[in-house]
Amino acid sequence: xxxxxxxxxxxxxxxxxxxxxxxxxxxxxxxxxxxxxxxxxxxxxxxxxxxxxxxxxxxxxxxxxxxxxxxxxxxxxxxxxxxxxxxxxxxxxxxxxxxxxxxxxxxxxxxxxxxxxxxxxxxxxxxxxxxxxxxxxxxxxxxxxxxxxxxxxxxxxxxxxxxxxxxxxxxxxxxxxxx
Amino acid sequence: xxxxxxxxxxxxxxxxxxxxxxxxxxxxxxxxxxxxxxxxxxxxxxxxxxxxxxxxxxxxxxxxxxxxxxxxxxxxxxxxxxxxxxxxxxxxxxxxxxxxxxxxxxxxxxxxxxxxxxxxxxxxxxxxxxxxxxxxxxxxxxxxxxxxxxxxxxxxxxxxxxxxxxxxxxxxxxxxxxx
Lengths: 179, 179
What we know:
The structure is a homodimer. By secondary structure, the first copy, chain A, is α/β, with parallel strands linked by helices. The first copy, chain A, has five helices and eleven strands, in the order ββααβαββαβαβββββ. The longest helix of chain A is centred in the first third of the chain and has 11 residues, at 53-63. Chain A is globular. The first copy, chain A, has a single domain, classed as Dihydrofolate Reductase, subunit A.
């Protein structure tokens, strides 16, 4: 079955965006030489990316205004807005968990969960994230949007790999199957 | 000058204790073979440990009721309680930052900041932590006591080392000096 993979960067204190929703502290870090990290390997395992509207909007306006950066993938944007599909981008009004269950039951390569925090939270709560690639950026932001929210249930993980480059540490975990 | 070192374990989602204040999820992980980690090296660099009352009480009652585990170190317990000093344990009513400033100006090896979260927060805010040894435990707790609290100022770090053992990843940072 297709795996769902959370591939995301956070500050050491667990923020994915600062209190203005900005990720500029991240770009400076990552621009050095991304090829040292796991991204190149990671994108070869996936063909689909899932994100919320705010993340979509941020990628469109801030990160890459000129072209859709994930044009090699099928993008699903979860939003309440009614929007016609664009080339390789589908806007869905489904819940994150329903969308992911449907995608997992269809054919394809792995599925990248790209954010934001609310979608990640719902999928974690429903135990629908199989792998976690967390890039820890060497900064303590102090405030902002947290990656991990409150959950009722503990989630045990298994560490698969770590890698360090340019001050960033990548931690790769998979969900530990119940014994 | 003596360095202050935060040496502490947290869950991947940044908790140092569960919502009952318990750390049993931590003990199970660490008991495997601590010698693989950095602890043995770390304790050789320090002669002093600083903690709050709750951390002190937890070590006394839960972790090691029979003997004071840090008997090789001088322990400072920050508390509002008036207590007579015990062998190698001094109870101080000073603020964390004042205590640390005084200790840093005195002779000795490095100083371990052991917790809890409130003391860590005050010292980070005042930029009084020089090094961060963070052991990331492979679990997402979902709730509990967070290591990192809200801070007004960003803290840039420099990654010095990472080490993995028994599913735990140790991240060693030092404060990046302003340029």
